[in-house]
Amino acid sequence: MAETRFLPSESLDTFVKALRRDGRRVLAPTARDGRAELNPVEAAAEIDLEGLQTALSAKETVFPKVERILEYSLSGGGVDLRDVAPKAEPTVLLGVRPCDAAGFGALDAVFNWDTRDRFFNARREALAIVAVACTRADDACFCTSVGGGPGSTAGSDILLTPVQGGFLAELVTEKGAALAALCPDAFRPDPGLEKKVADLPMAFDHAALTASLQGRFEDPLWERQSLRCLGCGACAFVCPSCVCFDLVEEADAREGRRLRTWDTCGTALFTLHASGHNPRESQAQRWRQRVYHKFSYYPERYGRLGCVGCGKCTRACPVDMDLQEHLLEAAQA
Amino acid sequence: MDLITKSRELLETGAVKAVIGFEAGRRGTVRPAFVREAAKASTLVFDERCTQNLAAYLTRREVKRMGRVAVAAAPDTLRALLQLMAERQVKEEEVLPLAVAADGTVTELPCAADVEAHLALQAKELKAADRELLAKLDAMSREERWAYWQKELSRCVKCYACRNACPMCYCAHCTMDCNRPQWVPVASHALGNLEYHMVRAMHLAGRCVECGDCGRACPVGIPVHLLAFHCQESVHAQFGQRAGTSAKLDYALSTFRPDDKETFIR
Ligand code: SF4
Ligand code: SF4
Ligand code: SF4
Ligand code: SF4
Question: Are A278 and A272 in contact (CB under 8 A)?
Answer without folding.
Answer: yes
